[in-house]
Specification:
Layout (H helix, E strand, L loop, with lengths): L1 E3 L1 H4 L5 E6 L5 E4 L2 E8 L2 E9 L2 E15 L6 E15 L4 H6 L7 E2 L2 E3 H12 L35 H15 L1
Antiparallel strand pairs: 1-9, 2-5, 3-4, 4-6, 5-6, 6-7, 8-9
Bound molecules: zinc ion (ZN) (2 copies).
């Protein structure tokens, strides 16, 4: 959704609220896509602070489904926060471009809510997702989820290259 900021700028102190839907069904980052488990409309509140400066508040309340870093089971990752930003619209497009992290959500005098929301989700994603602190992960041989089952794999087995050396060693002994 694009919010036309001209309307807000018409009068100092003017305030407007917008309900912006999250349009996509999944969130994409680093070529990975994660489905939303919950996506509430984001409430934007924009205030004209005067001198072409606006304050943008946004309430984000979503849940993403991401794989556990150890066992790959789905984990629901909630993200709930209020973002507050002052934006100086006196800056030229060039100044804005130089300021890498800021204002990529501005498109002329339009605020692109989708870009704004994606940015905020991105910077607030957890570095590591675990289904639980002590997740046992999966067996690296058979893939059994060790939280819910067990397997008979001998995970202490020697490296195959090592057993060949032992075979050679045993042949010598037999001679
Ligand atoms: Zn796990
Ligand atoms: Zn196993």
């Amino acid at each position: 959704m694009l919010i036309d900021l001209n309307e807000i700028l018409s009068e100092t102190g003017k305030e407007k609220q917008y309900k912006a839907p999250i349009e996509k069904d999944f969130f994409t980052v680093n070529n990975e896509s994660y489905n939303y488990n919950k996506k509430s409309d984001v409430l934007f509140k924009i205030v004209n602070k005067g001198k072409k400066v606006i304050k943008v508040d946004a309430d984000i309340d979503i849940e993403l489904i991401m794989p556990c870093g150890r066992c790959l089971e789905d984990v629901i990752v909630p993200l709930k926060q209020t973002v507050s930003k002052d934006i100086d619209l006196k800056k030229t497009a060039q100044e804005r471009e130089d300021d890498i992290e800021e204002d990529v959500f501005l498109n002329g005098m339009n605020l692109d809510t989708e870009v704004f929301i994606d940015n905020e989700i991105f910077v607030n994603l957890p570095m590591k997702v675990l289904c639980k602190e002590d997740c046992k992960g999966i067996c690296y041989k058979c893939g059994t989820n060790l939280n819910t089952g067990s397997c008979d794999c001998d995970t202490t087995e020697l490296d195959p290259r090592m057993s060949k050396i032992l075979d050679v060693f045993n042949q010598f002994k037999e001679v």
